[in-house]
Design a protein that fits this description.
The protein is mostly helical. Helix content is 77%, strand content 0%. It has six helices and no strands. α4 (52-64) runs antiparallel to α5 (72-84). The chain is elongated.
Length: 120
C-alpha cells in the first residue's frame, strides 16, 4: 500500500507514468479494491498528458464498456490519439471499428431486403 501512496503523490504532481500505473492498479483491483471510476480518472489524466498506453486503455474501456457505458466516439477519439503516436494495435482497432461502421448501413439494407422478400 505504501507503493500506491507514493504513486498517488506522483500522480498529483502530474507524472503520467504514475497516473497510468494507478489506472492499472484500480482497474485490475489486484492491490486495492477494483474501482473503474478512479481508474478512468487516472487514465484520463495520463492520456491528456500524451501517455500512449493510457490513451489505448481508455479507447479499449469505452469500446468494450468496461465499467462504463460503451461509447464508440470516445473510444475512437482515444484510439486515434494513441495511433498518432505509433500504437499499431490502436490503429488496427480504430480501422476495424471504422470498417464495421461503414458496413452497417449496407448490412441493414441487406437484412431489410431479405425480410421484405419473405412470403406471408
Amino acid at each position: 500500500m505504501e507503493g500506491v501512496r507514493l504513486l498517488q503523490i506522483a500522480a498529483i504532481h502530474g507524472v503520467p507514468d504514475a497516473q497510468l500505473k494507478l489506472g492499472n492498479i484500480f482497474f485490475l483491483g489486484e492491490v486495492v479494491d477494483r474501482n473503474v471510476e478512479d481508474a478512468i480518472l487516472y487514465y484520463q489524466e495520463a492520456a491528456e498528458s500524451g501517455n500512449q498506453d493510457a490513451q489505448m486503455a481508455l479507447g479499449t474501456i469505452y469500446l468494450n464498456g468496461h465499467g462504463v457505458d460503451k461509447n464508440i466516439e470516445k473510444s475512437i477519439e482515444w484510439l486515434n490519439q494513441a495511433a498518432e503516436q505509433g500504437d499499431v494495435i490502436a490503429l488496427g482497432t480504430s480501422d476495424r471499428i471504422a470498417n464495421q461502421r461503414a458496413a452497417l448501413p449496407h448490412l441493414s439494407l441487406q437484412i431489410a431486403g431479405r425480410t421484405s422478400q419473405r412470403p406471408l
